[in-house]
Design brief:
The protein is mostly helical. Helices cover 66% and strands 5% of the residues.
């Protein structure tokens, strides 16, 4: 997998974390992955207009928005996350008001912080060198694509690196904590369902790997949601906005 796809995964992960404990987002994230890999362009190949957030929606960079087990998250993390979610909701024609977006953003930040804390407790660490190495590889393999994505989501390199660090921590956390298996029967059952919906789908052997990965991702998201819900039950979370 090319490293620039990490950006698509990072965006998708944001929606998964925002949805933890809420509505199921699996169908939406599948569509998001596809569009992210195609370059986030509108019909006709033109870039979508940048989404803006109003002064009312913004929080001062130094203002604490939420405390998670005594660790404060401030506006400098909230504002880019809010804009990211607003951009994605707009891109996929989701009608979400400011209060809903604020809740989604806070949920995402809280859930990510809980994962980061639990990962640290289990000895999972991502160094600055790890983040820089990953960033350099992404940039080398698709600098124009990365620049376009950063422009669309109005992220600078430091903000993207913060997102990338969270993504790397979560990826290592998932690998260490969850042993996900997908059986041949599950793949076959899923294929039959797809075949009923679209008879022109290829042979099973041609799509088996894709189906297996889809089912693995779904199971992983389910396990992650359960884990985050449990962590949240035991956490001391105080929202300030």
């Amino acid at each position: 997998m090319k490293k620039w796809i990490i950006f698509a995964i990072t965006i998708t992960l944001a929606f998964v974390l925002a949805a933890c404990g809420g509505d199921n987002e699996e169908d939406k994230t599948a569509e998001q992955d596809e569009q992210q890999e195609e370059g986030n362009t509108e019909e006709g190949g033109e870039k979508p207009e940048p989404v803006k957030i109003t002064d009312k929606e913004k929080v001062d960079d130094g203002e604490t928005v939420v405390s998670v087990n005594g660790e404060e998250i401030k506006g400098d993390r909230y504002n880019p996350a809010y804009l990211q979610l607003k951009t994605m909701n707009t891109q996929f024609n989701q009608d979400v008001n400011e209060d809903q977006l604020k809740k989604q953003t806070l949920d995402m930040l809280i859930n990510q912080q809980l994962i980061n804390q639990d990962a640290a407790d289990k000895g999972i660490e991502v160094s600055n060198d790890d983040v820089q190495k990953e960033f350099d590889t992404i940039k080398k393999e698709g600098e124009d694509r990365l620049s376009t994505a950063l422009e669309q989501f109005q992220l600078n390199e430091d903000q993207f690196k913060n997102m990338l660090r969270d993504n790397l921590i979560t990826s290592q956390y998932l690998d260490a904590e969850f042993d996900i298996e997908v059986t041949d029967k599950e793949v076959e059952d899923y294929y039959k369902q797809m075949k009923e919906q679209n008879e022109e789908i290829g042979k099973l052997e041609d799509v088996k790997d894709q189906i297996k990965q889809t089912l693995k991702d779904e199971k992983t998201n389910e396990q992650l949601q359960k884990r985050v819900d449990k962590l949240k039950e035991d956490a001391d979370v105080e929202t300030m906005i």
